[in-house]
Amino acid sequence: MSEVLADLSERFGRFFLEGWPVKLAGAFLLWAFGPWKGDYGVLVTLVVLDTLTGVWASLREGRSVRSSAMKIKSLSKLFLYFAALLLAALVDKGLGLRAVDLTLGLLIATEALSVLENLQRIAPAHPLWERLRGLIRR
């Protein structure tokens, strides 16, 4: 049994490392988005933080967390973000605008706000929230 699993693992790994579909997809992504930007890493980090703080806040509020609902929500968010970034990249290619930077900025701001909202749900009486409200009102 372990020999079969080892063989499958080797074939699967070889397909993803040497297979033309993966190379083609990688070439398309590199063409569309260009080289890796640090903002992509910030967005990925904030998406992970949003998910973790959202789960923490829901558990703290006594709500149940179901993996099937989280999977659908997370995958749909990732798909929409990818589609928005892909569309912005194509606009950049065609019109020479900085649509990717604008889209990344909007997505990062959205995720950062969501993380702050989740943190407020976790610790609603923390004095930081009043300070932030004061800064926003100015």
Task: Please explain how this structure is put together.
The chain is mainly α and 138 residues long. It folds into two domains: 1-34; 36-137, no CATH class. Helix content is 85%, strand content 0%. It has six helices and no strands. It has helices at residues 2-18, 20-33, 38-60, 67-95, 99-122, 128-137. The chain is flat, with a radius of gyration of 20 Å. 9% of the residues are buried.
Quick overview:
By secondary structure, the protein is mostly helical. The chain is 85% helix and 0% strand. It has six helices and no strands.
Determine the mean pLDDT. 82
Alpha carbon gap, first and last residue: 67 Å
Unreliable residue stretches: none
Total beta strand runs: 0
Number of domains: 2
Q: What is the structural class?
A: mainly alpha
Q: Please report the number of helical segments.
A: 6
Order of helices and strands: HHHHHH
> Biggest β-sheet, characterized?
none
Strand content: under 5%
C-alpha Rg (nearest Å): 20 Å
Helical content stands at: over 70%
Assign an overall shape.
flat
Secondary structure topology:
Layout (H helix, E strand, L loop, with lengths): L1 H17 L1 H14 L4 H23 L6 H29 L3 H24 L5 H10 L1
Helix pairs in contact: 1-2, 3-5, 4-5
Structural features:
138 residues, mainly alpha, 2 domains, 6 helices
